[in-house]
Amino acid sequence: MEEVCVWFNPGCSKCRTARELLEERDVAAEYFHYLDSEPGRADIERVMELARIDDPREMMRTSEALYQELSLAEAHRDDLIEAMVHHPILIERPIVIRGERAVIARPPERLLELF
Q: With contact defined as beta carbons under 8 Å apart, do 105 and 55 qualify?
């Protein structure tokens, strides 16, 4: 089976539900605590590629207060990615990666698309 990695925030109920769904299916996964070990630009761009995302906003928490504070609504692609690098709280979660595919698991059941 291909390795599974979950960009995970233990304080997020959607992340916890995603973990439960994987455990119910006996899927071993690595849990990347992206708020503690901030992902780099290359990591974010790789996830966008795997999830077939062109617009970084598709993997951003646009309702996050920081998104408004940083005036990102009109920002360009590079600025959005840089914002996620420096402020990972802006990254939508959970993100589930399996092999060469990824999904933003909102709702968490979306992760089942990878299996």
A: no
Burial of 5 from C-beta contacts in 10 A (0-12 / 13-18 / 19+): middle
Q: Which two three-digit tokens encode residue 83?
A: 């914002």
**pTM of the predicted protein model:** 0.94
Q: Which CATH superfamily is domain 4-114 in?
A: Glutaredoxin (3.40.30.10)
| Tokens standing for residue 52 | 């077939």
Asked if omega into 94 is within 30° of 0 (cis), the reply is yes
74-114 pLDDT, tens digit per residue, is: 999 999 999 999 999 999 999 999 999 999 999 999 999 99
Write out the catalytic residue numbers: 12
Residue 2 structure tokens:
């291909």
